[in-house]
Amino acid sequence: MGFLKQGKEIHGLAIRSDCHEHEHINNALITLYSRCGNVAYTRSFLHLTSSRTIVTWNTMISAIAATTSIPRVTIFLQEMIGSKTPPNHITIVTMTSLFAEAADPWHGNLLIAQRLFDMMENRDRISYTTLIGGYGLQGSRMFARKLFLEMISQGIEPDEIAIDVVRSAWRRIRLHGGWNHSRVAANC
């Protein structure tokens, strides 16, 4: 509780120094309040922030994910989407990692991650790789394969990390036959 008091003092200093409207400072304060365990104050602070960019939302989601339950994080994600801020690859990585860590069948499903991915305006190697890895962790062979082929058809070349994730997914889901190895190897 002592750190929360000190955090509020730093926040007061930012206001007195007239730098409390800078995005970086606001994001640091969001992280500070959430790590002090004050989710209600964190949420209030988010709503008082005049400029809520994707960076601010991702900071909020990541900070809350470190200290609270998945349903609470999901509420912030829904708020972000409701505010017309589309998720990006950082959002997807954060949420997918959170669900994977929970290892709970309800949270472990990738429906939310898939919806976020579908809403993305610009899908890139990172977003594809993250979702392929998530499906691989769940053993969803068809979805992992479909995404890999879609990534290639979109002209997105897999890098070393993507290839490692795909190979790991194939091993996990025990996808047998020459397709996986030759297709992955052809894109190394």
Folded structure, characterized:
The structure is a single chain. The protein is mainly α. It folds into two domains: 1-85; 110-188. The protein is 74% helix and 0% strand. It has helices at residues 2-16, 23-35, 39-48, 54-65, 70-82, 89-102, 105-108, 111-119, 125-138, 141-153, 160-173, 178-186. The longest helix is centred in the first third of the chain and has 15 residues, at 2-16. The chain is elongated and about 55 Å long. The N and C termini lie far apart (51 Å). Mean pLDDT is 78; it is low at 175-188. InterPro entries: PPR_At4g14850-like_plant, PPR_rpt, TPR-like_helical_dom_sf. PPR repeats lie at residues 124-158.
What are the defining features of this structure?
188 residues, mainly alpha, 2 domains, elongated, TPR-like_helical_dom_sf, PPR_At4g14850-like_plant, PPR_rpt
The largest pleated sheet is described as:
none
Which parts are unreliable, with pLDDT below 50 for 5 consecutive residues or more?
175-188
- The helix count comes to 12
| Cα Rg | 19 Å
Envelope shape = elongated
N-to-C SSE series? HHHHHHHHHHHH
Q: Write down how many β-strands occur, each being a DSSP E stretch of 2 or more residues.
A: 0
Span between N and C termini?
51 Å
